[in-house]
Design goal:
Layout (H helix, E strand, L loop, with lengths): L3 H10 L5 E4 L7 H7 L8 E7 L5 E6 L2 E3 L1 H8 L5 E2 L2 H8 L16 E5 L7 E5 L5 E6 H8 L2 E3 L2 E3 L7
Parallel strand pairs: 3-6, 6-9
Antiparallel strand pairs: 1-8, 2-3, 2-5, 4-10, 7-8
């Protein structure tokens, strides 16, 4: 499995300013990350993994959002795209499902960053391990991942209370 060291090294190799730090406790979602760090949801992103015959796709969207399938397919110019299961996402990325970062993914991934995150503001993501957090500017993330920038985010359906 890959770790936050892989994320850090990927960004160092590309001379991208960033920080990877440990949070108190396991972070299972971008929404939980926002709550633990007391951040507005628009400053926290998450990575959704999709598959197509041409290879895997990482969709980077704000917390509380999902990726619109047709917009994502258009952005990567692929028609046969589908959301990967949690197990398959972990297999493709080589990271734990709860800790998939937006940078440091294996070769062959296409990355699409939602337009709302492609800005000069500091953003927070899972950093590749259950407790690690990646802090990076949106514009630097786009550069580090050679991402396509597109309007792909749509509000996620409400989650049932637990």
């Amino acid at each position: 499995m890959r770790t936050s060291v892989d994320v850090h090294n990927h960004l160092l190799e590309r001379d991208v300013p960033h920080e990877v730090f440990a949070a108190a406790g396991r972070l299972r979602s971008a929404e939980q990350l926002a709550a633990v760090l007391d951040l507005p949801p628009q400053e926290v992103g998450k990575v959704l993994i999709f598959e197509s015959r041409k290879g895997p796709v990482a969709a980077v969207v704000p917390s509380g959002f999902d990726a619109h399938l047709r917009r994502l397919a258009r952005a990567v110019r692929r028609r046969d795209i589908a959301l990967a299961s949690d197990d398959r996402a972990s297999e493709l990325t080589e990271y734990l499902t709860d800790a998939i970062p937006p940078a440091g993914l294996p070769q062959g991934f296409a990355t699409v960053v939602d337009r709302s995150l492609a800005r000069d503001a500091v953003l927070y993501f899972s950093g590749g391990e259950a407790r690690s957090v990646l802090k990076i500017r949106g514009t630097d993330l786009v550069r580090a991942t050679d991402a396509v920038v597109a309007s792909i985010a749509v509000p996620a359906p409400p989650q049932p209370a637990r």
